[in-house]
Specification:
Number of domains: 1
Radius of gyration: 15 Å
Shape: elongated
Number of strands: 2
Helix content: 40-55%
Strand content: 5-15%
Distance between the termini: 16 Å
Order of helices and strands: HEHEH
């Protein structure tokens, strides 16, 4: 869970089938985008969700590079 480096490496190595990445990059970008909108006087929702990212063999190497 939470795409720990060891878990993602295990996916790359074929030992795990998947995990979930709590996308803190997406959260930070989303928060910054909302802050800019708010400061520009635009209406923003009180709650804004950022989806998690499923980590599988297809994207594990890419995720691993992000979190190192």
């Amino acid at each position: 869970m939470d795409a720990l480096t060891d878990a993602v490496q295990n996916i790359v190595d074929g030992k795990f089938t998947g995990t979930v990445f709590n996308d803190y990059f997406g959260q930070a970008q989303g928060a910054a985008d909302l802050a800019v909108k708010f400061l520009n006087g635009e209406e923003v929702d009180a709650v804004n969700m950022v989806d998690y990212v499923k980590v599988t063999a297809d994207n594990a190497a890419e995720i691993l590079e992000k979190i190192k």
